[in-house]
Amino acid sequence: MRLQTGERLGPYEIASLIGVGGGGEVYKARDLRLDRIVAIKIPPAAAALDSSRRALLKNEARAISSLAHPHICTLHDIGEEDGLDFLVMECLTGETLAQRLLRGPLRLRDVQRIAVQLADALHAAHRIGLIHRDLKPSNVMLTGSGAKVLDFGLATWLDSNGGSPANGVQSTDRTVSDAGGIAGTFGYIAPERFGGCVADVRSDLFALGAVIYEMTTGRKAVRGDQADPPSIASVTAGVPAMLDRIVSKCLAKDPADRWQTASDLRDALAWVTLSDPPPKGTNRQTRRRGWTMLAVGAATLAVAAAFVLIRAWRPSDPESNRGMKFVIVPPESSGVDVPIVSPDGRKVVFSAQASDGKFGLWVRSFDSLDAKRIADVPQGTFPFWSPDGQWVAFFASEELKRVAADGGPIQNICAAPSGRGGTWSSDGIILFAPDAQSVLYRVPAGGGVATKVTTFASVPAERSHRFPQFLANSHEFIYSAYIGDAGKTPAIRMSSLEQPTEVATLTPSSFARAWAPPGYLVYQREAGTYLAQQLDAEHRRLVGEPIPVVNHVAYGDAGGDVAFSISNAGVLAYETAVAQPFRLTWFDRTGRRIGAITPPTMTDEFSLSPDEKSVALVRIDPENEKRDLWRLDVERQVMSRLTTSGSAEGPRWWPDGGRIAFEADTRNTGNRDLYSIDRGGASGERVLVTSTLQNKNVEDVSPDGRVLLFRAQEGVKSVGNLWMLPLDGISHPSPYLVSSFNKSFSRLSPDGNWVAYDSNISGRSEIYVNSFPQPTTPIQVSAAGGGDPKWRRDLGALFYLAANGMLTTVTVNTQHGFEVGESVPLFEIPAATRQLMTTYEVSRDGQRFLIADAVPGIPQAPITVVFNWLADLKKTSR
After folding, report:
1. DSSP 8-state class, residue 323
2. pLDDT under 50 in the chain at which residues?
């Protein structure tokens, strides 16, 4: 008889039946001691008293208890109630791989991700001498945190010689329940076991190969006739030869011809470059942190193979009949930004946040295993190369700077408040955009006075010139011109230093940066897709039809940049976008995870309601990048959608919890306006601020609900200043804090008398406090870098994120002015979280912190390098 809802097994209360299989029944239950949901597995009712069935259950308990791995179902407990044995395991939400396969084969990138996770799980089991023996799609659960291996009921232990069985778990390679049959499931049992051989690690690898085959093709690898299956490449279009070889090696009939370890198989699977389109990245031109794009390190074997390609390839051979591709190894980091290939096509420079939490410029030579950090700089620095590849120029601290490509002292070239790209001519002239709302200027590469080159057109009205690129050995250049307030369709223009007023428009582009390798213009017409079209430089026009070069290119972290570059030597580098899901999770003051309040969710900003019972969060659709505002009822675990415009950002709660302020581009102008909406969304959106102020961001609502504090840029000024709006429905915005330095992440104190914010007054981001509503002299709070301040509700402390990634608290006293106490580091915020627009929220008592915790196991974005890209382009054009 099956267990009934409400029935007790020791401290566990049965909630519902989850599933029934040959190995037993699985129930959802509640652990009444710890108030958590668990899964309980018992033998089938008819076999509950069968000693062999009970032996299998205990065998499974022993197997799982020996493992602690993110992709193996966790065992919590084992118990016995009235003669009934049962296992208590984590309760997983999702579907089995077998259920998923009913809808057909998986995308190649999903195949790779799941296969790597399963191989890693098997490696963990094999490392302690455990063989699963029944890996199959129905024993793999697909959850928000990745694949999970289930059901170790048929597992066996290796003996000291590497074979099974051992340790008295089972005496033969046959299950006690199959009447002498071989343990496992036909179609996933390795051929040698039919001949009487015992299972070893290679038996599991055969089963994994069969699972990968089925995920890729939608067909079973082994059928009744035992014939070799057709190659996966012959069944599924677009399968790389390397993946085909990996799976064929798994399915070899002779164990000696298979992969010999799960770790080798795992690494081989990770090296495969697959071409399925990943979810697109976001395009946010704000002061906020970008949606996380994580860098992946390729394995040593892949790098060694790249050496052979590099040494065999010559930049002077553009007519070679084939292109070559490999993945380079960035540093151990997160947040890798736009990779820029050197003019000779032998190095790449990129911005990245290293494991120490600092952002820097890194140079990686293609014939080296390591990237070298050449400068500590902020994120989004728009680096570019000197023609000889000996120098890298970049923007930081409101200056155009340069540094030697192998590191050294940083040299200032000229002022550039908020640079947006540059280019370096062969005779030592740098052409650059000093500001986000500026024309192009020129300056000697050794430093000096910058002079204006281009001029804004009035019809149609232009507002920004960006990303200039000199044509090879020429003073002619291309650049991107943003038009009007929208800026959604920048035009790619062409001009020259000698006659800058003679301008030709080459093409509209969906995004800013374009490239001009010899004979071509390479640009975007659709977001994420680069096209190449022949450029007749003499007549300044494009000829022929555009041909796709690469798809699904990721966006950079600032100012309209994209993760794509191309050199005159025929080498291109790019990153594809990877969407990283997060769980909103409570942490205590030691950094211990207390509990998640959401399932895996695509989000990068959120706001905790004053009563801590709701969370307003931006959910991102990974397929189309649309961003909408949702409200999470924490107690009921229910999500409610509030907006539908697809452009909502920056939620902040009213003090009474009744409304939420946010920013959105509902007019589709490219310039966000500020809105509010009630917590239920019933009354619709209410306009708060709509004006020509650029890049508006909601900062906070005053404790009395009467004033909105927001950040914006005015006219051609690129500095973000703080503004106030009385929420009386008739007043207009007025400046609160205006200076030549950026101010962001501003929060009003609980009594409404102070504003905490981060600013770069000192040359790096630090925390400051100023009086409100009338500012005076700012008071510096942090001493070694800091950002994203939050107040404790009793006004006795401030929290902020230090430059080293530590969540830090400092006591404050407002009885006699504003007094700052000692800073105390609490714990390190996860690196992936530090890239989000919301880093953390704090509870009223300052004892808990709500943090977006990255879901592990998500495949990371590589930097792909392609030699002789023209070869593949010419093949495509035939």
Report:
1. -
2. 46-49, 160-181, 275-321, 333, 486-487, 716
Rounded distance between C-alpha atoms, residue 754 and residue 764, angstroms: 22
Total number of residues shown for the chain: 878
Q: What percentage of the chain's residues is helix, strand, coil (to nearest 5)? A: 15, 40, 50
- In our burial notation (b when 16+ CB lie closer than 10 A, e otherwise), range 536-567 reads ebeebebeeebbebbebbbbbbbbbbbbbbbb
**C-beta neighbour count of 370 within 10 angstroms:** 11
What are the φ and ψ backbone dihedral angles of 383, each rounded to 5 degrees?
-70, 155
Q: What are the beta bridge partners of residue 364?
A: 348, 371
Q: Are 313 and 325 in contact (CB under 8 A)?
A: no
Q: Which long-range contacts (CB under 8 A, 24 or more apart) does 43-50 make?
A: 43/84, 43/85, 44/20, 45/1, 45/2, 47/177, 48/83, 48/84, 48/85, 49/83
Q: CA–CA distance from 328 to each of 40, 239, 388 (Å)? A: 46, 22, 22
Q: Following DSSP, what letter does each residue of 421-457 receive, concatenated?
A: -EEE-TTSEEEE--STT---EEEETT----EE-----
Residue type, 60: E
* Measured distance CA(121)–CA(434) in Å, rounded: 51
The contacts found for 43-52 with CB under 8 angstroms, 24 or more apart, are 43/84, 43/85, 44/20, 45/1, 45/2, 47/177, 48/83, 48/84, 48/85, 49/83, 52/176, 52/177
- Residue 649 one-letter amino acid: E
Question: Residue 14's pLDDT is what?
Answer: 87
Return the SS3 of 192. helix
Q: What is the dihedral of CA 412, 416, 420, 425, to 10 degrees?
A: -50
Of 183, 106, 101, 98, the closest CA to residue 138 belongs to: 98
| Alpha carbon distance 317, 334 (integer Å) | 35
pLDDT (tens digit, 9 = 90+) per residue, 110-168? 899 899 999 989 998 888 888 888 899 988 989 877 899 987 777 787 754 444 443 33
Cβ atoms < 10 Å from Cβ of 368: 14
Task: Report the amino acid identity of residue 312.
Answer: A
Q: 69-84, pLDDT tens digit by residue?
A: 888 888 787 887 777 7
pLDDT at position 27, please?
84
Distant-in-sequence, close-in-space partners of 675: CB < 8 Å, separation ≥ 6: 661, 662, 663, 664, 666, 685, 686, 687, 688
Residues 6+ apart with CB under 8 A from 653: 607, 608, 609, 610, 616, 659, 660, 661, 701
CA quadruple 679, 681, 685, 688: dihedral, nearest 10: 0
Burial class of residue 372, CB neighbours in 10 A (0-12, 13-18, 19+): middle
Instruction: Please give the backbone phi and psi of residue 678, each rounded to the nearest 5 degrees, phi first.
Output: -70, 160
Whole-Å CA distances, 800 to 287, 580, 637: 17, 24, 29
In this prediction, residue 31 carries a pLDDT of: 87
List all residues 6 or more positions away from 608 whose beta carbon is below 8 Å from its beta carbon. Answer: 614, 615, 653, 841, 842, 843, 850
Sequential DSSP letters for 751-801 = TSSEEEEEE-TTSS-EEEEEESSS--S-EE--SS-EEEEEE-TTSSEEEEE
Determine the 3-state secondary structure of 744 from DSSP: strand
Dihedral angle computed from the Cα positions of residues 601, 604, 605 and 608, in that order, rounded to the nearest 10 degrees:
40
* Six token digits for residue 579: 């969407």
CB neighbour list of residue 541: distance below 8 Å, 6 or more residues apart: 504, 506, 535
Closest among 745, 816, 751 to 782, alpha carbons compared:
745
pLDDT of residue 558: 60
Helices and strands in the chain, H and E counts = 10, 59
Note the pLDDT of residue 278: 38
Record the tokens describing residue 519, joined without a space.
């004979």
Task: Give the phi and the psi of residue 109 in degrees, each rounded to 5.
Answer: -65, -35
Question: What is the Cα Rg of the chain in Å?
Answer: 30
| β pairing state of 593-596 and 603-608 | unpaired
Provide the CA 627 distance to its chain's centre, in angstroms: 16
From 336, 356, 394, 308, select the one nearest 577 (Cα to Cα). 336
Tell me the CA distances in angstroms from 49 to 39, 169, 579, one per residue in order.
21, 19, 49
